[in-house]
Amino acid sequence: MAEGKNLIKYLGVARIDSTADHVIIASHCTDVENLEEYVKYLDKILGHESKIKEGKLLRIPASKESYDFLVKQPRKDGEYDMRMVVIGVVDRLMSKSTCAALCKQITNDFKERHKPRQIVLAAEGDLNAASRKLFEAAIKAHGKDKMGDLNEKLSTVKNQMKTNLLATMERGDNLDDIEDGTRDLMDGAQRFQQTSTALKRMMCCKNVKMTIILVLTILVILTIIIVILVCTQSDACDASTGDSNSSPAPAPAPAPTSPPTV
Question: DSSP secondary-structure letter at 169?
């Protein structure tokens, strides 16, 4: 997901000397294209010393623009007797409490990072490099557009829900297609079962017919064989009977002869 909108365009620390002159000793700009314009207007604001009150946050809207200029002079303490001023250019969406917290963090970090002598003797831009990290930390802590991030997250969630809904609807269509396909498969399986049953019954009937035909054929063949055998046997018997009737009668035995008389 892309990062949210950055509400901080420019941050810096200026020093107002006793002669009412001012110098921007450290700065960091995230909108380089408009840097000269930001510095020009901040110089004008710092030039009106009477408007800058100690401990008061001064927020001046830029005409015909969507950003404001911030100027805040921290309250003096025993060690810092110079007039150090936190300056900045922020988006108009940034709340007053966030602006105050931003100025407070820069004040504390700047005093912790630089000694009073460095701040007093620094010329314009001398502390830019040494202060870059603390400015970036402040921007990271307070510069995000939380509402923009929230809206972006809501938009992301909305798009995700829309995607999920479309996927669910598509899945529903796929389920309908699968259900129709399943129903067709079941109908096809039922028709196949019916066809298989009919074919099986037809094959069984065909096998029975073939068995009956085969049995009848065997019976007919056996009958023919038996008839032929019976007829052959009967003819043999008749032939043997005729032969016995046509054979000649045996010759009569000769009469006994009487012995001659002596």
Answer: H
